Amino acid sequence: MSRPHEQHHPFFSFGNPFRMISSKGSNLSQRLFSLLNKFEETLAGRLRKLSPKDQDEVLSLSWMKLAMESLCETHNDIKTLITELELPVCDWDEKWIDVYLDISVNLLDICIAFSSEISRLNQGHLLLQCVLHNLDSTSSKQFIKARSSLDGWRQHISSKNPRVESCCTILNKLVESLDLPKVKNSVKGKVLMRAMYGAKVETVFVCSVFAAAFSGSGKKLLNINVADKYIWAQAFTGLQTSVNGEIRNVFSSERFTVLKELEAVDTSVKKLYPMIQDGVDPVKVEAFQNSVSDLARRAEGLSQGLDLLTKEVDGFFHVVLAGRDTLLGNLRESSTGSDAMLGCKVERVQTS
Q1: Domain of 126?
Q2: Higher-confidence position of 287 and 43
Q3: Where is this protein chiefly located (predicted)?
Q4: How many domains, in total, are found in the chain?
Q5: How many Cα atoms sit within 13 Å of 267 on the Cβ side?
C-alpha cells in the first residue's frame, strides 16, 4: 500500500515517451510536448496562486473557495486535454477507465461529505440569529434565552459529522491511486496519465486540507512527495509545506477551530457570554452594544463565506459528474459495436 510519506514512482521512469514516435515525424512529438507543457505550467501557476501570502489566509473561507475553484479549473483542463490529444475513449486502456471511474466515485462521495458539513455549519447561523434577536432587549428573560442559544451554538459547532470522518478512508484510497497504470504502447496515453497525476495530486492535497479543517483533526492532512521533474513540483511542495505547517501549528495550540471566520465568531461569543451571564453594567452599555455588533458582523461574514464555498463545492461535484457521464456515454457508443467487454463494463459501473 502506498503511504503519504513515501516517494511515488516517477511516471516517466521508462524514459522519454516522445522518442517512440520520433521516426514518424517531429511535428506530432512537438505537439504532444507542447500540450503537456501547457497543462503543467498552468497547474504550476494555479498552485502558486494558492500559496498563502500570510498565515491569516490559511483556512479562511476565501482561500478554501479559491482552492475549490482551482480544482474545477484543473479538472476542466483534463477534459480539454483529452479532446486536444484526439484520444477517443475506444483507444483507452481498460485500466485507465477503471482508475478514472473509481476516482470519480470517491470524489463525488467527498463532495457530498463536504457539502453536508458546510450545511451543518450554516445551520448554526440560525442559533446566532436567535441570540442577536434576544439581545435587542436588555431584560433578564431575554438574556437567559440568548445564553441558551449561545450554548446551543457552541455545542452544535463542536459536534462531529460522521460523513466527514469517513473522508479519511476515501482519501487513503485516492493516495493509493496516485500510482497510475503504466502505459507501454500509447504516447498519447502517457501524456494523459502524466497530466492526470498532476490533477490527482492537487485534488488529494486540497481535499485533505478540507477534511482536516472540517473534522478538526490534523490526522487528515497528507504529505505527498512529488518528483522534481514535474514543472509544477516546486510550486506544489512550497504550497503543501506552508499550508500543512500552519494548520498543524493551529491544531497544536488547541484552538476551538482552524476555520478563520468560525474562529472570529467564537471570539465574539466568548467576549459576549460573560456580559449576558452577569447582566449588563450600565457603565458598560456601550461595550456591550459593540460586542453585539461585532458578533452580528462576524456571523454574517461566516454565513456569506459558507454560502460561497457551497457553490464552489457543488460546482466541483458537477464537474466530476459531467466527466464521468461523458466517459460512460462514450463507452455506450463503443459497446454498440463488437466490443462486448466495454458494454459489460458500462452495465457493471451503472449498477454499482
Answers
A1: 17-351
A2: 43
A3: membrane
A4: 1
A5: 12
Fill in the amino acid letter for 98: D
Of 48-62, 73-87, 90-104, 125-139, least confident by mean pLDDT is 90-104
Q: How many CA atoms lie within 13 A of 34 on its CB side?
A: 7
The pLDDT assigned to 285 comes to 75
What's the DSSP call for residue 10? P
Angle between the 94-134 and 187-215 helix axes, to the nearest 10 degrees?
Answer: 20
Q: What is the pLDDT of residues 83-114, one digit of tens each?
A: 888 877 777 777 778 878 888 999 999 999 99
Locate 217 and state its grid cell: 483533526
Gap between the Cα atoms of 138 and 58, Å rounded: 38
CA–CA gap between residue 21 and residue 33 (Å, rounded): 12
Mean pLDDT of the chain, nearest integer? 82
Residue listed under C-alpha cell 487528515: 220
State the Cα angle at 104 between 92 and 87, rounded to 5°.
Answer: 20
Q: Classify residue 9: in a domain, yes or no.
A: no
